[in-house]
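Input record (Table S2, row 335):
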Amino acid sequence: MLIVTDPAAGVKSGGLDAVRRQTDGRDVFVFDGVEENPSFATIEAGRDAALRSRAELVIGIGGGSPMDAAKGIAMLAANKGPLREYMQGRPLEAPPLPVACVPTTSGTGSEVTPYAVFTDRDQRNKVGYSHPGLFPVFSVVDPELTYSMPEALVIHTGLDVLTHALESYLSEASFGLNDAMALHVIEAVLENLKAAAAKEPQAMDRMAYASTAAGICIIHGGTILLHIMAYPLTVFYGVPHGLANALLLPRFLDFMREKSWVKDKVARLDRFFAPEGGVEAYLENLGVQTGLSRIGVKEDELAIFAEKTIVKSDVHITPAPVTEAEIVDIYRASL
Ligand code: NAP
Ligand code: FE
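Output record (fe (iii) ion complex):
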């Protein structure tokens, strides 16, 4: 089997040792070359490792980056083409190798989803991919593996959990049961994220639970406009994924409050943030300062960001009339 991890997360979290103990006596190879927001080239290098080691199972240990990389490697180990072609719609010739996941952040929910996100560095683009064969065959969610996260990582990944729940709740693809679960996750994040950032174990345990539950929400409802608008902030400015979502969240909610056809749902979200003084105050209280100009984003880049966003399929499950001009407006208001 092949373990896929990043240079530090597998070791710092204790996840790599834990998996090695469980797999003692079997042929285990480790590919630890995964960077944050894994590139196409990394996934292809991982394929070579999978083929050399004749892996029959790929285990991702880490945050979303190693878990998604494990999924990409499992796909390419069974399919000979370049990753780019599959991302552009070429059907898989064979199902991916089975994947198992061991999360070390409380963020992406990749341990339960059929999704993987890769970065096309040449085209400066993040590409989301979904295939039923990428549902992990099993995952081990052990909150203790998240205890080594530094405070900022707890907050950034926790805000990814919050936005997964919030976007899947608003999504056109959601339905009653999913709505209920999403609201339950939002409540759990609001109750626990601050304490989790202060490294209180019980709160970190609840965030691990919320992260996996939010993963289940996005299996059903997906993420919508906010996530795809956040991708360029990561690709162009290296903003961590969860933080990128958070920086756009206040103005995204303004847009939904004004233009969406789920205003009752937006009002319900507003009621969650009201005791915190509103969403912006909630973020500030976590130490997150919104304002894209702080990270160097310039007005003349916004059209390029919008061009990259409008072509993504998640636009179609966003319950609002989304145009390129409106996307630019949301970015501009977030400067
Ligand atoms: P990540 O990119 O996997 O990890 C960020 C950094 O966290 C790592 O480089 C590592 O830093 C550190 N780290 C991880 N676990 C740690 C631990 N337990 N203790 C100490 N440090 C730890 O972050 P992520 O936010 O979990 O994943 C983001 C990726 O997932 C993005 O590519 C995003 O697009 C994707 N995503 C996927 C889905 C899905 O459904 N598949 C959903 C949302 C997002 P060091 O190496 O410096 O230690
Ligand atoms: Fe996310």
